[in-house]
């Protein structure tokens, strides 16, 4: 199916700072105040986020510190959960709490609170568990903890189910990622217990920024402030783990959302996907350079294995897609459950419809789902709750456990549900274009305007522009297996990643319409511009 180009803003005669006005208008920044807050996010935007009443949770923690009770920060194993744990654990430790982190094993214990683990913690004298980045679906687990004399404080950002656990306290908002919620709660906590700790906590926004980018939450409002401030902290980080990761990843210069999302976060995530997330936490919190370097090597090697597993699973799963289903549901026993979310994401890119990938087990199976705009995947999954053991997530991504014998019934029911929701318009692959860019407006000045709207991410995507009738002056392919298309058009360098197959259709002298992002060409020297091609059409 060909992509549909949807132009958000029709510009008749560009003049002055027209591009800034277009970008602002397309993002709903229709007043000077909104635009100012967007371009210059403030710390107050973070601290003003409503996470519910925190007094009860703070009081319980103060009691635990006073009585020297054993506390566990119960983590998730992804980059968000690991970052949230580091924030919460370090803060509580510095406040004098007797606290340790607990990172579950993805395969052996699964997502979230695990009752046998809670039983072991109770035997070891734990009196308080604080969850980070999970907990809102743990009804039975919290009930089990209470019977064992353990109070549970939940801090989470996932969509609340119809029935929530009877926890000691719930700290929650969907506005932030898990680490954002943890940081925001710690802000209330230290104001009450140790206000002098504020500067140290502000430094931890570097961890919240990594998590916010990695967890793909909207980069607007408080999240935008977290990322903008956090990226500044990362540039001058004193954490041996982050410095070692940056060095080993070969990143030179400024750290941005791309470097976090595509280079650093996957390495942190890799441990929880196929090994144990505890080593990622050890790296983040390391206070020893040699230990950080050793752990960085481990994370890098594990990430390479994760990439191999993912590639093999994608190639396998791609041949099993049923094109008659609105929601692709594919199950196989050969896939590692730590990579099925990545497989689902890739198949969504290929087929532009919701995808659910299931790592099939003998009795129980694990599923991971990714969606497209307009289809709330967690609602769709919960509509088949009679087949599920548990489920949680967001409108665009979710995970669940299911008895293997019900996979076929689940597949039928979720596709019946999808028929009532998914329309042809939702299924059409749309590329959102900011506006049509005249050739004479492809300038360094406008590149600076574009950079002013960084950081880019979910809800604030990298701006794409359309320029028509660009003359092809040179064409070739580059990269492994000639995967990428390299053009020279009207004096500009242009690169189309994974568009190498278009080479056979294009010749010098042809004219093309290009949809692209405007970026600096760091490869060919300072000061050059490059068009990063998203899509193209040959016009003559």
Q: What can be said about this structure in brief?
A:
This protein has 540 residues and is an alpha/beta fold. It has three domains: 4-38 and 432-538, OB fold (Dihydrolipoamide Acetyltransferase, E2P); 47-204, Alpha-Beta Complex (inorganic pyrophosphatase (n-terminal core)), CATH 3.90.1640.30; 319-427, Roll (Diaminopimelate Epimerase, Chain A, domain 1), CATH 3.10.310. Helices cover 42% and strands 21% of the residues.
Ordered list of secondary-structure elements with their pairings:
Elements: E1 4-7, H1 18-26, H2 32-39, H3 43-47, H4 55-66, E2 70-74, H5 79-94, E3 98-102, H6 106-109, H7 115-123, E4 126-132, H8 139-147, E5 151-156, E6 169-172, H9 178-193, H10 198-203, H11 205-214, H12 221-235, H13 240-248, H14 257-274, H15 278-285, H16 289-318, E7 328-332, H17 340-351, E8 355-359, E9 364-370, H18 377-382, E10 388-393, E11 397-403, H19 407-419, H20 424-427, E12 430-433, E13 435-436, H21 444-451, E14 465-478, E15 484-489, E16 492-496, E17 511-520, E18 529-538
Parallel strand pairs: 1-12, 2-3, 2-4, 4-5, 5-6, 7-8, 13-14, 16-18
Antiparallel strand pairs: 8-9, 9-11, 10-11, 14-15, 14-17, 15-16, 17-18
Helix pairs in contact: 5-9, 5-11, 5-15, 7-8, 9-11, 11-12, 11-14, 13-16, 14-15, 14-16, 15-16, 16-17
In words, what does this structure look like?
The protein has 540 residues and is α/β, with parallel strands linked by helices. The protein folds into 3 domains: 4-38 and 432-538, OB fold (Dihydrolipoamide Acetyltransferase, E2P), CATH 2.40.50.460; 47-204, inorganic pyrophosphatase (n-terminal core), CATH 3.90.1640.30; 319-427, Diaminopimelate Epimerase, Chain A, domain 1 (Roll), CATH 3.10.310. It contains 21 helices and 18 strands. The strands form 4 sheets. It has a 5-stranded parallel beta sheet with strand order 3-2-4-5-6, sandwiched between helices. A 5-stranded mixed beta sheet has the order 7-8-9-11-10. The protein has a 5-stranded mixed β-barrel with strand order 14-15-16-18-17. It is globular and about 75 Å long. The two termini are 22 Å apart. The model has no long low-confidence stretch (mean pLDDT 95).
């Amino acid at each position: 199916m060909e992509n549909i180009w949807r132009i958000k803003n029709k510009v008749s005669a560009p003049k002055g700072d027209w591009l800034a006005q277009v970008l602002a208008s397309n993002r709903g920044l229709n007043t000077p105040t909104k635009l100012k807050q967007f371009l210059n996010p403030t710390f107050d935007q973070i601290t003003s986020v409503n996470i519910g009443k925190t007094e009860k949770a703070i009081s319980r923690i103060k009691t635990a510190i006073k009585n020297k009770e054993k506390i566990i920060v119960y983590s998730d194993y992804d980059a968000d959960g690991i970052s949230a744990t580091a924030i919460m654990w370090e803060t509580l430790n510095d406040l004098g709490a007797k606290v340790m982190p607990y990172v579950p094993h993805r395969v052996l214990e699964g997502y979230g609170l695990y009752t046998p683990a809670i039983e072991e913690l109770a035997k070891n004298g734990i009196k308080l568990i604080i969850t980070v980045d999970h907990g809102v679906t743990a009804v039975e687990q919290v009930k089990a903890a209470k019977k064992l004399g353990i109070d549970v404080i939940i801090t989470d950002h996932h969509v609340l189910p119809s029935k929530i656990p009877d926890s000691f306290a719930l700290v929650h908002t969907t506005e932030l990622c898990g680490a954002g919620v943890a940081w925001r709660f710690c802000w209330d906590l230290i104001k009450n217990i140790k206000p002098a700790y504020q500067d140290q906590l502000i430094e931890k926004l570097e961890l919240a920024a990594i998590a916010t980018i990695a967890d793909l939450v909207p980069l607007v409002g408080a999240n935008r402030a977290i990322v903008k401030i956090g990226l500044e902290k990362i540039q001058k980080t004193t954490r041996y783990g982050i410095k070692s990761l940056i060095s080993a990843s070969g990143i030179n210069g400024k750290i941005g959302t791309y470097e976090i999302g595509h280079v650093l976060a996957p390495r942190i995530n890799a441990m929880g996907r196929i090994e144990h997330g505890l080593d990622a936490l050890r790296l983040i919190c390391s206070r020893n350079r040699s230990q950080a370097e050793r752990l960085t090597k481990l994370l890098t090697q594990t990430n390479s294995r994760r990439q191999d597993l993912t590639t093999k699973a994608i190639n396998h799963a791609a041949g099993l897609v049923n094109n008659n289903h609105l929601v692709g549901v594919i199950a196989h026993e050969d896939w590692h459950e730590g990579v099925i979310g990545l497989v689902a994401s890739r198949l969504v890119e290929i087929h532009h419809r919701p995808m659910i990938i299931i790592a099939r087990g003998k009795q129980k199976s694990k599923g991971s789902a990714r969606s497209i705009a307009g289809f709330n995947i967690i609602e769709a999954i919960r509509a088949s709750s009679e087949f599920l053991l548990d489920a949680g997530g967001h409108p665009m991504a979710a995970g669940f456990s299911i008895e293997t014998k019900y996979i076929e019934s689940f597949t039928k029911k979720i596709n019946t549900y999808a028929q009532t929701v998914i329309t042809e318009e939702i299924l059409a692959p749309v590329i959102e274009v900011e506006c049509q860019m005249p050739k004479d407006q492809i300038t360094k000045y406008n590149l600076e305007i574009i950079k002013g709207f960084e950081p880019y991410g979910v809800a604030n995507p990298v701006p794409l522009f359309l320029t028509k009738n660009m003359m092809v002056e040179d064409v070739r392919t580059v990269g492994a297996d000639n995967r990428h298309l390299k053009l020279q058009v009207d004096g500009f360098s242009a690169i189309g990643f994974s568009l190498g197959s278009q080479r056979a259709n294009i010749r010098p002298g042809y004219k093309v319409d290009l949809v692209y992002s405007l970026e600096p060409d760091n490869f060919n020297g300072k000061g050059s511009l490059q068009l990063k091609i998203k899509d193209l059409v040959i016009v003559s």
